Every structure is written in C-alpha cells, then in structure tokens.
C-alpha cells in the first residue's frame, strides 16, 4: 500500500491568516507521517510569485515526508526553482521526478509564463514518455501537474484549464501503468476521469471556489482548508478528503 498526502493552491501572500491555513493542513499531515509515503503539492505556492512569498513557503513547508512540489499559474519559475527546487534552471518547464516506495512520481510543469491557462510543452511530454519508459512497464506512475486538462463545470476555471490535452491522451494510451493524475488549480476537492484514468484534484488550501449553484461570489468563504489522501492498493487509487479548520 502507498499513501500520498496531496495539497494544492497554498497562495502564500504574507498574511498570518493564509499561513495558518497551510500550517493547519500540514500539521494534520505531519502528525500522521508514519503512515504516509509522500507529500505532493500541486502548485500556486505563491500568490503572485514574489521572492518573499517563496521564502515564506520554504520556512513554512517543513515536513519529515518526501515533498514533491510543482508550479502553477500564480508561480514564477525562476523564484520557484530557486526557493523550492534547489536552484533549478530559470528557463523552461520545471519538470522533475522521484521514485518513492516503488512508484514513479512525475511532477510536470503545466504553467505558461505570464498566463493563467495551462499547457504541457512538447518538451515536457517527451520527458514524461522517457521517464515512464525508463522506469519499466510494471512501475506504477503518478502524473502530477497544476492545471486540470478537462472542464469541471466551473465556468471561470474552465476557461483557464490545461489545453492541448490530445497529446497527453496519446501518451497515456501508450502507458497502462499510469495510475492517476493529481492536480489542483480549481480550488475544489474533486475526482473525475481523464484518458481513462482517475483525475484527482486536491482541495484549495487558501480558499474554495463556488460551484454555480453554491453562490454568486467566486470564493466560498465558509469552507475550511482541506487535503486529500490517495491510497494506492490492489492496483487502483482510493481518494479520501479531509477538512482541517485553521486554528
Ligand atoms: Fe490557485
Ligand atoms: Fe491556479
């Protein structure tokens, strides 16, 4: 059995209230670290990409778990890489991978510098293909990125989703050992399907966005921060969601 803690959309902005929402979910995870194999953070770490926000993130995101992070549309590659990926190159997508507990985690950069919508560069898709092939056909693969490559019936978010997804579908068709996709961006805990595999969205830590019938405001102010636990066992993923009110 493999257990992945998954959080997303932290949006560090220098406020104590924002930081408290992150520490509440992180404390919940850290207190249970003995039963968890990895922590995946699917983007929008900073609210507007300032260096001070990454310094705040680096000082707050303390965990005994292997932590895998990737950027979202609110992040800036140079600052993100310097603070959170030990000085990754400033140019090009910030892709990286790690084997954890016998599974391959592909952390893919779906951001487009300066834009809110997402897309995987051809370079990223080539890299993914090589990584999966290199691991071999029997290694379970988790593919993480920020932008969901499907609509979610959330009118605004659907306009800034990941596009160009037909190239990703073609890649997935080649690799039956891709277990699931992990993403964020929509600030809603949700599960759907993409290319025949589960697509799991972590709740937004910083905020939750309303569905059209929940309210006319963009942000649902009543919702506490949350997280997902993805359990991989018997060849499939089971996603559990938790809300953790900030102290
Ligand atoms: Fe976000
Ligand atoms: Fe986002």
TrEMBL record:
It comes from the Bacteria. The keyword Hydrolase applies. Residues 3-188 form the Calcineurin-like phosphoesterase domain. The keyword Metal-binding applies. One of its GO terms (molecular function) is hydrolase activity. Keywords: Hydrolase, Iron, Metal-binding. InterPro entries: Calcineurin-like_PHP (IPR004843), CNP_phosphodiesterase-III (IPR050884), Metallo-depent_PP-like (IPR029052). Belongs to the cyclic nucleotide phosphodiesterase class-III family. This is Calcineurin-like phosphoesterase family protein. The lineage of its organism: Bacteria, Bacillati, Actinomycetota, Actinomycetes, Mycobacteriales.
